Amino acid sequence: MLSEQAVPVVRATLPAVGGALDRITERFYGRLFAAHPELLRDLFNRGNQANGEQRQALAGSIAAFATALLEHPDRRPDAMLARIAHKHASLGVTSEQYKVVHEHLFAAIVEVLGEAVTPEVARAWDEVYWLMANALIAVEARLYQEAGVAEGQVWRSMEIAERREETADTVSFVLHPADGSPTASFRPGQYVSVRVALPDGARQIRQYSLSSAPGRPQWRITVKRVDGDPAGEVSSWLHAQAREGDVVEVSAPFGDLVLPKGDGPLLLASAGIGSTPMLAMLDHLAATGSTRPVVVVHADRAPGTHAHAAELRRLVDALPQGTLHLWYEEPGDSGARPGRADVTALDLPAGTTAYLCGPLPFLRAVRGDLLGRGTAAADIHYEVFGPDLWLGTES
């Protein structure tokens, strides 16, 4: 928790610092990449830097953590920290890099706020930073230990055993270790990072959910090509270049949106490519003969854009208490309901735990609907593909 001296200072300055965080983070990344261009080239997502989403996520996490320290001084925002720590671990972030971030972040704060950053203010916000950084370092150290790897040493070579075109813009890749060793264990719902060498020499990294159950000699990831401006560098490269027999660098599995143990009822709600962690959960439930009640919701544009649609139906059919509800914007004669997913119309058993994955508007809408029908906030879990722009906005 914050020291007694820091609490009133952070409380008094949070509006000013929070209001300037967008400018601070912009200045921070400019300084950081000028001093360490290799971080932009080989660690940070260049697309998210170009569109500003990474700045928004960093600003949101700082503001949310500081607010949590003030409003709940006796507990940490562990859910937020866990999401960040898992993402950092999947990138191979090390404890030493937090010192580099500290140097350039606080220089940016001084540059933006100027004389308002008195020694007292600097000490108070230094506390905020290191409380957050040390908490993340501790969680990441535990994650590396659980994964059986040294700090930051998460990469191994994986061979593409199979490539399958799922839809016009979605491809799945079946992977196994290039050296013939066993695949690492993982929990259903987790993801891996994939690092590829691009034509300009950069080695960019993206995360992809493992889309089949653990305990098999091979992994599977499903990659949707990201169009737009900027287009997805790694997804575009994988679609255009990756073929059977090729070797790619893949991280150990991480991620905190995982299938819970027990036999309690579940809601698995997804949209678009957000179905991939749900497929792993359902595959595991089917393979283990689970009889727990499972309500599955998926939303997509049309039958032809729904990757793994037949597999999803097969897995739900394999569950004695599984039910599937589909919504397509253009359902055609698929039998799906038209429009956006509406969980208010579903019969959810008491005590249902909800897992959500998909675009941010989908997550917000479904979470809001669940809260409106009385589901406890603690029973709603989500995964965001990309920077978590939800930080600090959850009620």
Helix and strand sequence: HHHHHHHEEEEEHEEHEHEEEHE
How does the overall form come out from the CA principal axes? globular
Strand content: 15-25%
Q: Give the beta-strand count.
A: 12
Level of helix content?
40-55%
Rg, please? 22 Å
What class, by secondary structure content?
Answer: alpha/beta
Strand order of the largest sheet: 4-3-6-1-2-5
Low-confidence stretches: 389-395
* C-alpha termini separation: 22 Å
* Main β-sheet description: 6 strands, antiparallel
Average pLDDT for all residues: 93
> Number of DSSP helices?
11
Q: How is the topology of this model organized?
A:
Blueprint: H1 6-35, H2 37-42, H3 46-51, H4 53-71, H5 78-91, H6 95-113, H7 119-147, E1 155-167, E2 170-177, E3 191-197, E4 203-209, E5 219-224, H8 233-241, E6 247-251, E7 266-271, H9 275-287, E8 294-300, H10 309-317, E9 322-328, E10 337-338, E11 353-357, H11 360-372, E12 380-383
Parallel strand pairs: 7-8, 7-11, 8-9, 9-10, 11-12
Antiparallel strand pairs: 1-2, 1-6, 2-5, 3-4, 3-6
